[in-house]
Design brief:
The structure is a single chain. By secondary structure, the chain is of the alpha+beta class. The protein has two domains: 2-229, Aminohydrolase, N-terminal nucleophile (Ntn) domain (Glutamine Phosphoribosylpyrophosphate, subunit 1, domain 1, 4-Layer Sandwich); 249-461, Rossmann fold, CATH 3.40.50. Helix content is 31%, strand content 25%. The protein has 15 helices and 23 strands. The chain has helices at 14-22, 54-62, 102-111, 126-134, 140-150, 234-239, 251-264, 281-291, 315-325, 330-333, 349-361, 393-402, 418-431, 441-448, 458-461, and strands at residues 2-9, 31-38, 41-48, 69-75, 82-86, 89-99, 153-161, 164-168, 178-181, 185-189, 201-205, 211-214, 219-223, 231-232, 245-246, 249-250, 272-275, 299-301, 326-328, 337-342, 366-371, 435-436, 455-456. The radius of gyration is 23 Å and the shape is globular. The structure holds iron/sulfur cluster (SF4). Iron/sulfur cluster binds next to helix 15.
C-alpha cells in the first residue's frame, strides 16, 4: 500500500507538500518521494526510508524544491514518483495499488517496441507500466481511461504536469482519495487527516474511476465512470489513521462503534477495558462506553524511540522491537480481569508472544480478547494488506481441525455453525486468551455505516460483499 498527497498553491507549495506527504507515513515504510513542478521543469527526490523517518530524509531536499505544484508518496514497494518526457509532455507520476496482469501487459508493450527499466530485484516498477500505458493515448485523461481498461487489479494515481495535479481513484474504489480546499491551495490525499493542520477542508471524496485536475484554488472533475464502489473495509478497522475519513465516515467513530457493537453482545465480567495500542484503542473506548467497564491503559507504547517508519534489518531485531515498544504498567495489571480490544488477529504470534504474555507475566487474572473484525480468512487481492493465506491464524486453525487445506470453507464463515465455534476455540487456545469473541460481518458493516454492497469485505467473506 502507498499514501499519496498532491497540492497546487498560489505561492510556493514545498512546505505543504512536505508536511502533507509526511502525514501518510503510516501507510508505507520502504520509500518516500517528492516531485515539484518548478519553472518549466520537474524536480524529483526519492529516498529509502526503511531505516529513518520521511521527515529527516527530506528536510534538506525540500528547501531546494520550490514550485507551485507537487506530488508526494510514501510507498511500501516501489521507488517513486517517476518522471517521463513523452508526447504528452513532461510529467511526474506516483501510484498506489496492484496490477494482477502485469506480466501480460509488459509483454504486450514490449512487442510494440516499448522498453522498461529493470529494477535490481529483476521486476518492473508498476508505476512505470502505468505511465507507459497512459502514454499510449493522445491526452492524459484518455490515457488514464485506457490504463484503467487494460489493467486487472486496482490503481490510483497522482500525475503532475504544467497544468496542475491530476488525481485518479482506482476504478473499483478500493482505496480512497479526497480533495481539500484552503484559502490559497487545493490538495488531494489518501488520508484526509493531512488536511486540517494545513488549513484545508475536505470537499470531495473521489468516486471510483473518477479523474480530477487540481488548480491552485479549485478542481475540475474530468471523468467519472460510475463503477460500483468497493471501498476497503479494512481501512476503518486497521490501516487508516484515526483522524481520517473515507467516504465521509470517520475512522475513530467507526472503531468506537465496532467496540460498542461487541460490548452490546458480550456478558463478560471484567475490571477494565484496554486496547492494544494504537489501532485497538478506539475499539476499546467504544467497548468501555457501552459496557460501563472503565477504560484503562495497562500497556503503553514507548513512542519516542519506536516510530512506525522504521523497519529493522533482521526478523530477530524486528521481534525485539515489537516486544520492547509495549511496556506493561504492572501495578495496574496485577490480579485484574481485562477485556483486551484488538483491531484484528492476523497471525496471532504478536498477541500470544508479546501482548498476552506481558499481561499474564504482570499478574493479570484473566484476559478476554475482542477483535474488532471477524476472523481473517482470505488474503487481500488489492495490495491493501500483504498477508498470505498460510499466515492467517484462522486458516491454520481450519487446517489443523481438518487435517488438510480446505478449498471450500463456507461452513467456517457462519458464526452460528459448530465449525466456526471450533475454529474460534482453536485460536483462543493458540494465543492463550481466557476467552475470545469476534464481531460479526453484519455488525462491522453497520459500524462503518455504508451499504454492504459499497464495501469490499473479501478478507472475511471471500466475496466482494
Ligand atoms: S481484500 Fe481486504 S484488505 Fe483488500 S481491499 Fe478488500 S477488505 Fe481491503
Amino acid at each position: 500500500m502507498s499514501g499519496l498527497f498532491g497540492v497546487v498553491c498560489r505561492g510556493d507549495c514545498s512546505s505543504s507538500l512536505f508536511l502533507g506527504t509526511d502525514y501518510h507515513s503510516h501507510l508505507g515504510t520502504q520509500y518516500g518521494g517528492l516531485a515539484v513542478y518548478s519553472g518549466d521543469s520537474i524536480k524529483k527526490k526519492i529516498h529509502d526510508i526503511s531505516r529513518s523517518q520521511f521527515k529527516s530524509k527530506f528536510f534538506d531536499d525540500i528547501q531546494l524544491m520550490k514550485g507551485n505544484s507537487g506530488i508526494g508518496v510514501i510507498s511500501n514497494k516501489y521507488a517513486q514518483p517517476l518522471v517521463f518526457q513523452s508526447q504528452l509532455g513532461s510529467f511526474a507520476i506516483c501510484t498506489d495499488g496492484l496490477i494482477e496482469n502485469e506480466d501480460e501487459l509488459i509483454a504486450e508493450l514490449i512487442s510494440d517496441g516499448i522498453f522498461f527499466n529493470e529494477l535490481s530485484n529483476g521486476s518492473t516498477n508498476a508505476t512505470e507500466l502505468v505511465a507507459r500505458l497512459i502514454c499510449q493515448k493522445d491526452s492524459i485523461v484518455e490515457g488514464i481511461a485506457y490504463m484503467f481498461k487494460k489493467i486487472e487489479g486496482s490503481i490510483s494515481l497522482l500525475l503532475l504536469n504544467k497544468e496542475g495535479v491530476y488525481a485518479a481513484r482506482d476504478r473499483h474504489g478500493h482505496s480512497s482519495l479526497v480533495v481539500g480546499i484552503g484559502e490559497d491551495k487545493c490538495a488531494v490525499a489518501s488520508e484526509s487527516c493531512s488536511f486540517p493542520n494545513l488549513g484545508l477542508d475536505s470537499v470531495k471524496f473521489l468516486g471510483p474511476g473518477e479523474v480530477v485536475l487540481l488548480k491552485s484554488d479549485s478542481f475540475e472533475s474530468l471523468k467519472s465512470n460510475g463503477e460500483l464502489n468497493r471501498v476497503c473495509a479494512f481501512l476503518w478497522i486497521y490501516t487508516g489513521f484515526p483522524a481520517s475519513s473515507y467516504e465521509g465516515k470517520n475512522v475513530e467513530f467507526v472503531r468506537e462503534r465496532c467496540g460498542m457493537a461487541i460490548a452490546e453482545k458480550d456478558d463478560v465480567e471484567a475490571d477494565m477495558v484496554a486496547g492494544v495500542p494504537d489501532s485497538g484503542t478506539a475499539h476499546a473506548v467504544g467497548y468501555a462506553m457501552t459496557s460501563g467497564i472503565p477504560y484503562r491503559r495497562p500497556l503503553v507504547k514507548y513512542t519516542p524511540g519506536y516510530g512506525r517508519s522504521y523497519i529493522p534489518p533482521s526478523q530477530e531485531i524486528r521481534d525485539q522491537v515489537a516486544f520492547m515498544k509495549l511496556i506493561p504498567s504492572v501495578d495496574l495489571i496485577r490480579d485484574k480481569r481485562i477485556v483486551l480490544c484488538e483491531d484484528s488477529i492476523v497471525r496471532g504470534t504478536q498477541l500470544r508472544n508479546y501482548t498476552l504474555k506481558k499481561l499474564f507475566d504482570a499478574g493479570a487474572k484473566e484476559v478476554h480478547v475482542r477483535p474488532a473484525c471477524p476472523p481473517l480468512l482470505f488474503p487481500c487481492k488489492f495490495n491493501i494488506s500483504t498477508r498470505t493465506r498460510d499466515e492467517l491464524i484462522a486458516r491454520r486453525a481450519i487446517k489443523s481441525l481438518e487435517g488438510r487445506d480446505l478449498e471450500d470453507i463456507s461452513e467456517y464463515l457462519d458464526p452460528s455453525s459448530e465449525k466456526y465455534g471450533k475454529m474460534v476455540e482453536w485460536i483462543r487456545e493458540d494465543i492463550g486468551a481466557t476467552s475470545l469473541r469476534y464481531i460479526s460481518v453484519e455488525d462491522m458493516v453497520e459500524a462503518i455505516g455504508l451499504p454492504r454492497n459499497e464495501l469490499c469485505l473479501y478478507c472475511w467473506t471471500g466475496r466482494f460483499h
